[in-house]
Amino acid sequence: MLAQLGLLLAWARRDVPDSVRTPLLAGHLQRFSVLAAISVIALLATGTFSALTEVPAWKALVDTSYGRVLIAKLALIGLLLPVAALNSVVLRPRALRKVASSGREALERLRRWLTRAVWLEAALAVGVLAIVGVLTQYPTARVTVESQEFVRESTQVVVGYESTSQAGDLGVNISVSPNTVGANSYQVYLFPQPGQPLADVLQVRLRFKSPDPTLGPSEVIAEEVNPNYFKASGAFFASTGDWEMQVFVRRAGVDDVSTFFRIPVQAGGAASGAGRDRFALPLVTGSWDLVAALGLLAGAAIVSVPAQQWPRIRVRAARWLRMTGITFGVIGLGLLLGVHKHVGLTPEQAREGNPVAATEASVTRGRELYDQNCTQCHGLTGRGDGPLAKTLAVPPVDFRLHVPYHTDLFFFSVITRGFGNIMPGFASQISEEDSWNLINFLRAEHSPEGQTK
Ligand code: HEC
User: Fold this and answer.
1) What average pLDDT does this structure show over 261-281?
2) How far is the CA of 245 from the centre of ligand 1 (A)?
3) Average pLDDT taken over every residue of the chain
4) Per residue in 342-390, pLDDT tens?
């Protein structure tokens, strides 16, 4: 867009008569700046999100190549934004005002400035793109930090696989740890024939072939630790199953030799990150709340831009956009400040009207009653997954989600009188006092303040 704008400005100077030029440029600049503002907001929002997923800590910004390139990119953007702001906040409005009062010479001077600033902005933008190109060549800071941690851990990890095989005249011993999907370290020991010296080893190469025959092999050259011990690391095992690992040894003055190992690769443990919650996967910093908040705020900013600036926008549309912007902004700010975490009842409000103190004895009695009377539907842990749950027209809710939002009095009526025709009342089987004990148990078990487990 910037390059196109620069070309347009240059062309307008040469080939367009004055009377047409100014209104043409004015309209164009106005539309351009709306799109540009939206793009910048989207860029900043997605960049922030990407940093949250790829840069685990401030320190990683300086410690990893990825982080350093990212700093360079941010610095360029830091130059770009003021130039862009100069264009859209100072030069452009001034040019538009000049169109109205049409001082020919001043306008011409402004237009020249604007052209220069636009080209500068375009050049900086190209620089940013170039840096992004460099950035994609590096493993992200998260990958780097994780693999550093992995290497540290793997020195203590038990070896997952070890085997010895003969490659020509050489004995080859390999060990793979932890031998799970994801990053592993591979160690290769070479043994010459008894009584023979080990010839000068030039290279040890490992080739990995997936159990899936449609996938091509990948290779790595192992690093020499000492003349008969070589080491490599990396995430070559992409799936479980029997992988084939071929070890090639090249020595000075002798033919190359190689040998195969069939390695049964296991599913990843905690070390390879497979145990992580899939939903939480992309984020290494911050929380989904933060992402949602930033997304909403960016959305608010984006819909507000055309409401203010789009030429000839209809009044109703502008009002609608502004309302949407405000709504997004308020919800986003609320999320950012964590308002939703305080929604719910205070402990005093929740317990109002409950005559039985939540002593340990009361909670224990409640747990007993719960186990006897309620688990068949509500489940042992209160998640609504008891054996009878599937047979009910309305499945029981997860207590962890509901208990914090209802009062003890509400629960008392549910337990004694039942819940519509979906849950029976227990008034005839459970005494009043025991109902309160049950409630004390539910509260202790399922509200965030009173977790007993
Ligand atoms: C026959 C199955 C069944 C049994 C037994 C049962 N419930 Fe329920 N319960 C339900 C269903 C279904 C609901 C309605 C859906 C919901 O709100 O969880 C419900 C609702 C509730 C609620 C309201 C939850 C809310 O916030 O909306 C409470 C509290 C409750 N049950 C407690 C108990 C207790 C305590 C016992 C044991 C004394 C018990 N239930 C036994 C099926 C059962």
Assistant:
1) 59
2) 57
3) 82
4) 556 677 778 888 999 999 999 999 999 999 999 999 998 888 888 888 8
Single pTM value for the model = 0.43
> What pLDDT is attached to residue 436?
95
426 lines ligand 1 (CB under 6 A): yes
CA distance 316 to 307: 10
| CA 393 to ligand 1: nearest atom | 12
Q: Mind listing the pLDDT tens digit for each residue in 213-236?
A: 888 889 999 999 888 889 998 888
* Pocket lining: 402 vs ligand 1, CB cutoff 6 Å: yes
pLDDT digits (tens, 9 = 90+) for 384-437: 888 888 888 788 888 887 787 788 888 998 899 888 778 888 989 999 999 999
The residues near 228 (Cβ < 8 Å, ≥ 6 apart) are 189, 190, 191, 198, 201
Q: Is the pLDDT of residue 113 over 60?
A: yes
Residue 181, both tokens: 């999907």
Instruction: Report the separation in Å between the CA atom of 419 and the middle of ligand 1, taken as the mean of its atom positions.
Output: 7
Atom index in ligand 1 nearest the CA of residue 384 equals: 18
Q: What is the pLDDT of residues 138-158, one digit of tens each?
A: 888 877 877 777 666 655 555
Q: How many CB atoms lie within 10 A of CB 184?
A: 27
Query: Whose CA is closest to atom 40 on ligand 1?
Result: 374
**Ligand 1: centre distance to CA 388 (Å):** 12
Give the atom of ligand 1 at the shortest distance from the alpha carbon of 442: 35
Residue 284 vs residues 46, 142, 267, 289, 447: alpha-carbon distances, Å: 15, 8, 22, 13, 27
